[in-house]
Design a protein that fits this description.
- Helix content is about 30%, strand content about 30%.
- It is an alpha/beta fold.
- It folds into two domains: about 240 residues, 3-Layer(aba) Sandwich (Aminopeptidase), CATH 3.40.630; about 70 residues, OB fold (Dihydrolipoamide Acetyltransferase, E2P), CATH 2.40.50.100.
- The strands form three sheets. It has an eleven-stranded mixed sheet with strand order 3-5-4-6-9-7-8-10-16-15-12, with helices on both faces. Strands 11-13-14 form a three-stranded antiparallel sheet, with no helix packed on it.
- The structure holds zinc ion.
- Zinc ion (ZN) binds next to loops.
């Protein structure tokens, strides 16, 4: 058992690798929800506990099943993003093969990677319809947004209609994310950046997204549970400009030994003008290369990207560019 704390929620819980599983033995889709792939992002753990408690208390009818899986169990216990390596950069087929085959000692995150990928294989053996949500949060203040990979038609259908903004194409800047690995494996899903790491609202957003994902995946009948309309209200209340799609066009990669300091006050999806001061690198100013939106400005010690840059795109580009890799 691992102790996990949420400071602003003033809550402590004790979790294992499987946070919970809910099924009534009726055939149907399998929704996997991952929480805490980054150990300083505990919101998904608490959201999942709320969901399992409510599902069980009201004996809500479900087709298929919901499984909650802990990400970086060890880092979650200490509230750090990671120990040796960022776990959301390790989900690469060759790396997974290596950690499964090696007889030598694995580092902390390699060990977690081995356990999780083997567990998911076991949990989904024989399943034909697997969906997933990977719960994350950001160091900056943020309205919640979905991050999804380009070209996965069924994942796009899963996301469509959810009352939050969606960003596509982050996989062009970051390799080894859990979401891309499981998209390539034929699972339908996305990463959900639910708000600031420590904010209480982030837990509520995370919970709302899991309820709506249960509907979209086809596990729950929306008529049956009153939690659904509340979930839609919670997520929709965050949207400032209306529901939009954005495409990632570049990122600022921080080099080894580089001292990077973001200017204070940026929030996710904030409009940025070309030439605007964004940060300092080794004391020198870093200006915006273009106009657009800033994404995930770095306000924590651990992290390899200072920020990402995105632009709004029209939804029809998503449909035209679809490529299904299974
Ligand atoms: Zn994260």
């Amino acid at each position: 058992m691992q102790q996990v704390k949420h400071r602003n929620l003033e809550a402590t819980t004790y979790i294992d690798r499987i946070i919970g599983q809910y099924t009534q033995g009726i055939a149907g889709p399998h929704l996997l929800v991952f929480a805490g792939i980054h150990g300083n992002e505990p919101s998904g753990v608490f959201a999942l506990e709320n969901i399992f408690r409510k599902l069980t208390k009201d004996a809500i009818p479900i087709s298929g099943k919901l499984t909650g899986i802990t990400g970086n169990l060890k880092a979650l216990g200490s509230g750090v993003r990671y120990y040796d390596e960022d776990m959301n950069r390790l989900f690469l087929p060759e790396r997974i093969e290596k950690v499964r085959q090696t007889k030598s000692t694995l580092n902390t995150e390699e060990n977690e990677l081995k356990i999780i990928t083997e567990l998911v294989d076991k949990l989904t053996a024989g399943d034909t319809d697997v969906f997933f949500v990977d719960c994350h949060s950001t160091s900056a203040e943020s309205e919640p947004f979905i991050s999804m990979n380009t070209g996965y038609t069924d994942s796009y259908a899963f996301v469509r209609g959810l009352p939050v903004n969606a960003v596509i194409g982050i996989e062009r800047e970051i390799k080894g994310c859990l979401s891309e690995y499981y998209n390539q494996r034929g699972f339908h899903g996305f990463t959900f950046e639910a708000g600031q790491h420590e904010a209480v609202d982030t837990v509520h957003n995370q919970e709302a997204m899991i309820w709506l994902s249960l509907i979209k995946a086809g596990c729950l009948d929306p008529q049956i549970t009153a939690h659904i309309s509340h979930a839609e209200e919670v997520l929709a209340s965050n949207i400032i400009e209306g529901f939009k799609f954005f495409s990632v066009i570049s990122s600022y990669a921080i080099k080894e030994e580089e001292h990077f300091r973001m200017e204070p006050g940026f929030v996710n999806l904030q409009p940025i003008e070309k030439g605007q001061l964004l940060a300092y690198s080794n004391g020198n100013p870093v200006y915006a290369p273009d106009s657009g939106r800033i994404l995930m400005p770095l306000y924590q010690k651990q992290g390899n990207h200072g920020y990402f840059f995105a632009r709004e795109i029209h939804e029809h580009h998503l449909i035209q560019n679809k490529v299904v890799l299974k």
